[in-house]
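Bug #77: duplicate submission created two jobs. Keeping one. Sequence:
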Amino acid sequence: MWVWPISAVLAVASATAEYRHAPLPVVFALSCIAIIPLAGIMGRATESIAAHAGPRIGGLLSATFGNAVELIIGIIALRAGMPGLVKASITGSIIGNLLFVLGLSFFVGGIRHPIQRFNIRAARSNAAMLLLGVGVSFIVPAIFSRGAAHASLALSSVVALVSFLLYISGLFFALFTHRDVFQSIDEAANEGAEESEHHWRLWPAVLVLLLTTVLVSFESEWMVDSLKTVGEALGWSEIFIGVIIVAIVGNAAEHASAVWMAWKNRMDLSLEIAVGSSLQVAMFVAPVLFGFSLLFGHMMPLLFSWPELASMGAAVMLVAILMLDGESNWLEGAMAVGAYLVMAVGFYSLAV
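Kept job's structure:
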């Protein structure tokens, strides 16, 4: 498996650069690159554990650990006193998954398959959850907040609690009470492929997950420690680093998986990776990181800047419209990717 030697080489290279006090841009670059294959291994280990645990417990495990890398990076950044970076990475994960990943999946899959179809009932449910998770949980509190510290904390606490509870309710709905609603329309066609897919044995998968989690923690700490210096040297603002750089690094493995599934015409799985990851960031990762911010004494109110709110709101609205017919094509993918590129340039311009 080619990813193992690559991960080992990159981990050793980044550790050597860190402990031999190499220039911080070198440490930053090596740490970012090393996290990408490690995230892929973490995902594979989680899938194997989920396969052994059964569909319901496995679904919960996959949902919980699906954004483990982002969670680790966020916790380390909060401990370092960088709540602005963490909020920017939340924004970047949401718009990156919705526009760039899903758009690229639509585009790549549409080149090979002119019209691709997916479960319209699941798409509508996810669209509603996206509107709730981003529109109601992020945009509405920003409108009502007047900047007072106590008001921000109170609003953020309510947002975090409600989002977390609704996310858990959504998991219970999808995995227990209404599993048939989310049954993939291409499940029968891919049943044989799923059965033949090789999963690791349980305990080796657990050990691999623990080991890669530790390695990602070290790599994330080295990356976060070098962020400020690298940003100043390159003229990047904290919000640009969080929205674009950190979000891409934390989601790179998922990005590749979603596009590959679309190429194989497995659009339900591709949407689950892209849209499901955005929902998880908005309704699970963000509330958990808010809790850690209180624990570390670096309060991170869930009140985002207007450029962030406008970008997330536009991304949700565009994707909701694209999903509602249960079909996709390459032009819809191009529109989503184009929107992401415009937003990326906009966030970069904030540093200029």
